[in-house]
Amino acid sequence: MLGLRPLWQRLRGSLWFVPTLLVAGAAGLAMALVELHTLLPLDLAQSAPRLFGTSADGARGMLGAIATSVITVAGVVFSITIVALSLASTQFSPRVLRHFMNDRPTQTVLGVMVGVYVYCLMVLRTVRTGDEGPSFVPSLAVFGALLLALLSVAMLIFFIHHVAESIQASSIIDRIADQTLEAIERLFPEPIGEPAAPEAQIAAQLPREWTEVPSPAMGYVVDVDAQELLAFATEHDRIVEFVPRIGEFVVAGAPLARVAGPAVLPQQAVQRLQRIVSLDNQRSVDQDAPYGVQQLVDIALKGLSPGINDPTTASACIDRLTAVLMRLAGRRLPGPYRQSDGVLRVIAAGPSFESIAVLAFDAITAQAGNNRDALTLERLIAALARVAGVAQEPVRREVLQQRLAVIDETITHCIELPSRQAALRERSARAAHDAR
C-alpha cells in the first residue's frame, strides 16, 4: 500500500528504473540517427570516408562485435554488483543493501551497457546489402555506435573505481550519515525556540470515545500525507489520532488510526484515511530519520562483534552518530498535537530526542561493555560530551546525563584494570558535569 511519493522514491531507488530509461533513450537515439541519415543532403561516406566510410558487411561486423562485447561486459558488471551486495550484507548489515540499490552511478553504468547493446541491435537491423535490395548503410548511426563503444570502455573503468570506493566502510557510513542529516533537515527544519504549551492541558480535553480505522495491509509505515490528514480531520470536524509512528510495523486489521466520536465512519471516508498512510516491506530514511541512526548502530555493532573485531569501523559510526545528535540537539522536534485555526485536529506522535539518543548509544555501550572495550567506551564519553555542548534544553541535557550514567555503570562492571577504570570514570564524571 504505497502512496505516490513513496512509490516514486521506490522507483527511483530500484536497480532497473534508470537502466530502463537509458535503454529506451538508446533505442530512440538509434532510430533518430537512422532517420537523420536519410534526411541529410550529402553522402557522409563520400564526404568524410575516414570517419563514416564503410561497407554494409563492415558495418554489420562492427555492430555485431560491439553488441557482443558490450553485453558480455554488462554481465561482468552485474556479477560485480552482486558480489558487492553480498560483501556489504555480510561485512556490515543487510540494511545497507538499499544504499547499493539506490546507487545512481551503478544504475547508470548498467543502463549504458545494456543501452549500447540495444542501440547496436536497432541499427544492425537497418543495414542492407545489395543482395537484399537497395544498399543502405546508416553511416551516422554506425559512427554513433563506435562512440558509444568508447563510452562503454570509459564507463567500465569508472565502475571498477566506483565499486572499489563504495564498498569501503567509510563510504558506506558517510552515505548513511548524509542521508540521515538530510532527513533531519527536511523533517525538523525549525531551530529551538520558545517552549510550546503544556501537552497535559491538551490531553485533558481529549474525548473518551474513539472509532478505530483498521490497517488494510501489513508493513512498515514509511510515509504519512500530513496535509491530507489535516484536511480530512477538518472536513469531518473530527480529531484524528494516527496510532503507529513512522517506521513502526503494523499488522493487517490492527488500528491504523482513531477518529474521535462513537459514530461509524462511511466506508469511503475509511478508505480515504487508509490511503493517507503508505506501507512498505522495509523502512526508509526519507521520512524516518531514526532508521538512519539504526543503520549506523548496526554497522557499529557488527564491527564490535567477536567475529569481525573492527573497533575502527565502530569508532567511525560513533563519530557520525555524534554529528547526527549534534544536529538534532539544536532542532525543534514537533509535538504530537496539530492544530488548525486554534482547534485540535490531528494527534501524531513522532520521534523524541530521548528515543534517538537511546537508540544511538545504549546498544553500542552494552556491546563495548561485553567486549571490555575501554577505547570504545572512551569514544562514547567524548561523543556525549560534544552533543551536550550544543544541547540547550535542560530535558535533553538530562537525557545525555542518563546515557553517561549508563556508561559509568558499564565501566564499573566491565573494566577490570583499576587504573583504566579510574581514568574512564573521571572522564565520564567530567562530561556529566559539563552536561548539567
Q: What's the short version?
A:
By secondary structure, the protein is of the alpha+beta class.
Write out key terms for the chains shown.
Serine Threonine Protein Phosphatase 5, Tetratricopeptide repeat, 18 helices, Aldehyde Oxidoreductase, domain 3, single chain, alpha+beta, 3-stranded antiparallel sheet, 3 domains, 5-stranded mixed sheet, 8 strands, 436 residues
Question: How would you describe the overall organization of this protein?
Answer:
By secondary structure, the protein is α+β, with helices and mostly antiparallel strands. The protein has 3 domains: 4-167, no CATH class; 182-192 and 286-340 and 348-434, Serine Threonine Protein Phosphatase 5, Tetratricopeptide repeat, CATH 1.25.40; 199-280, Pyrimidine nucleoside phosphorylase-like, C-terminal domain (Aldehyde Oxidoreductase, domain 3, Alpha-Beta Complex). The chain is 65% helix and 8% strand. A 5-stranded mixed sheet has the order 1-5-3-8-7, covered by helices on one side. A 3-stranded antiparallel sheet has the order 4-2-6. Strand 7 and strand 8 form a beta hairpin. Helix 9 packs antiparallel against helix 13. The two termini are 46 Å apart.
Number of domains: 3
For the sheet with most strands, the description reads: 5 strands, mixed
Query: Strand-and-helix sequence, N→C?
Result: HHHHHHHHHHEEHEEEHEHHEEHHHH
Spatial strand order of the main sheet: 1-5-3-8-7
Radius of gyration: 29 Å
Helix coverage percent of residues?
55-70%
Name the structural class: alpha+beta
What's the total helix number? 18
The proportion of strand residues reads: 5-15%
Instruction: Indicate the low-confidence ranges by residue numbers.
Output: none
**Extended strand count:** 8
Shape: flat
Instruction: Please report the distance between the alpha carbons of the first and last residues.
Output: 46 Å
Mean pLDDT: 86
